[in-house]
Amino acid sequence: MWRNRDQCITGRAEIVEFLYKKWEPRAGLRPSQGTLELSGERIAVRFQYECHDRNGQCWRSYGNELWEFTENGLMRRREASINDVPINEGDRRIRGPRAARERGLLLTGPVIRKNR
Q: How many domains are there within the chain?
């Protein structure tokens, strides 16, 4: 069972279809994630990512996710609270591969900046 924004998805086939539709239009995706808590088969994650859509509009998405896994490592449950903010190209903060010392670290500074 997955919850993503306002969608609830159940079953492996539906989740695979959802993921293909979700990630196909997100060109130039640049993620930044950090683990908040790890407990047995559960993980809490805080994230930010930036991408642009087919029309060239840039987006910053940020939020929290809760993941729960089965004993054999498959994701049993995912709940995501995601905020999407349109940004200008010049306001992007995540560009190209991150340096090894920055991997796994969240970006600092304001999450939302108003468009000019």
A: 1
